[in-house]
Amino acid sequence: MSSTNSEKLVLSKAELQSLVTSNDPVISFKKPTNKRSECWANYSQIYHANIPQDYIICFQCKSVLRWAKDHGTRVMTHHNCSKNKPVVTTQSRQRTISSYCTQPSSSKECPLIQKRITEACVEYCAVDVRPFESVAGTGFQNLAKQLIDAGATLGTSIKVSELLPHPSTISRNVEHVYLNLKKQLISLCVPLECFCITCDFWTAKITGIHYGGISLHYIDEQSQLRVFTLSCQAYDFETQHAINLRSFVNKVLQEYGLYLNDDVFIVTDNENKMKCAFKDDCKRIGCSAHYLNKILQLAFTNNNANCNSAQSLFKLVRAIITNIRQSHKQSLLSICLVNYSDTRFSGIYLMFNSFMKIYYELPQILSDEQKKNYLKVDRDSLESLCIYMKKFFDVIEKLSCEKTPTIHLVIPYKQLLINLSVINDNDDQLIIPLKKYIAKELPDYWVVNDVHFIATMLHPNLKSFNHTPHQRYHAEALLKSEFDKYQELQQQPSSSNNNNKRQQIQQHKNTQLASSLDDIFDSPTSPDELQDEKLAKTEFDRYIEDNTKIDKDMNILIYWKNNKSSYPTLAKIAKRILSIPATNTSVERLFSDSGNTITNRRTRLQTSKVNQLLFIRRNLSVLRE
């Protein structure tokens, strides 16, 4: 009897269609919890008496479709719904050619076209030796769009080879596109009153050529943070002495009409040559990511750190990963193992974390000798270490953001990591020496400047300095000093009139004093005195007393844009200070792009062409906005 009932729980397509059409209450619908595709917007899985069926329903035409968990969205994309979507046109936008065509969802040709395009993409990646991700790139999609538009205008009779340019033609036109974009960027640099520069130098592994990267950071009139790559030029000096580094940077900046002076900030790494190159006629700020990454690197590699257990674990994991990569067994694992690199931020955490994720997969591919090292790795200690180091990784990621200001986060995040490194009773024995070392090095090794304190004061949620109360008055004094400097630069013709008014009010108060019994009462406050008290409170005082808080995810630049009229002087200070990045990762990312540009197949690429290609890649989307 029970077997008969269980069989009835799974209905046929015809039975379900009948129940759906009659709106039977025993039928219900629910979307799978792990499905995120947009195709599920018009579909749901069918339930009969709360029992899931291997069928879905199309809400547009009420059709029941066969579906199983391993089918994905293929059934939905191939379903030709009988209810076509209406063609939408608006008066404010010109109707595109696609609006005159049959909609893809109702066209029988669409699946066939998509299949042919998919096959062509497979052939493109295989024949031209291109990564699969290349078809998802913005440049490839823009090219495809241009070809579609050309086909709509010229028809399909024209040969593709007649439209596509020769490779040498593309190479010649790189400079043309570069010069047009550079001219546009120069025009943006002309009116700049305050900006910040980041720079760094590196060597291309394949060619051995030295390059210098420079990026520009500023806040525009719409209170948007703008980041542009100015240069990825070949470093043509014989040595990397400080005077040569400075000359290289000055030469690049002059091309854009920019010059370093005492009001310009520059963010670099913390090598001595960079400190020496930018010690005069500018304000150098050390990269916070470099400070933090160096502390972690020394903790795991320096014998004087007294972190023996952590260093032993580091060597074991690194040796196992190196063996796997050299024996070409990486493809047998579910995820890619990341080996340590001293040039990669958070390289130690990324290595440990990738190892932990496939910890239980490793015995299947390791040799007997490597299994002995594997058994020495305690997974609980590894997991505790990853949890601890995840905070350092998150801080570096936050400070490396290019879309919003980050310099105001340096002091709070530094204190957060110091607090995190306090030893607890339940800490793993491997982590205790590591915490001791990091807690000792963080306060002094990670250098913060006056500008970091000022930037923190410019955030309404951080100016109370709850993270470090003992530093609040120091930060207030620095912001007040900066505020006074700006005030001195502004002419105030009404200041003498205000002083005269205060003198008159004081004289009036003195004449009202009389030797009588009424002297025990304060004199009544006149309207002039009330106005005088308002005048006595400066913009700075009102900001300090303002308890307004903003959402933690709100861009701080929006706050200053909205309060520009209330705090005009402080808004100018914010525009200058908040354009300074906490790290120089905008240039570090340029290194990665250069590595993808200078490959084994492009060793003869001229250095000027490398500079032009990277300039286009980094600036094209922003300059076209």
From TrEMBL:
Signal peptide: none
Subcellular location: Nucleus
Pfam families given in the database record: DBD_Tnp_Hermes, Dimer_Tnp_hAT
A GO cellular component entry from the record: nucleus
A GO molecular-function annotation: protein dimerization activity
Compositional bias ranges of the Low complexity kind: 488-507
Keywords (A to Z) from UniProt: Metal-binding, Nucleus, Zinc, Zinc-finger
Protein name: Transposase
Tree of life domain: Eukaryota
Keyword Secreted among record annotations: no
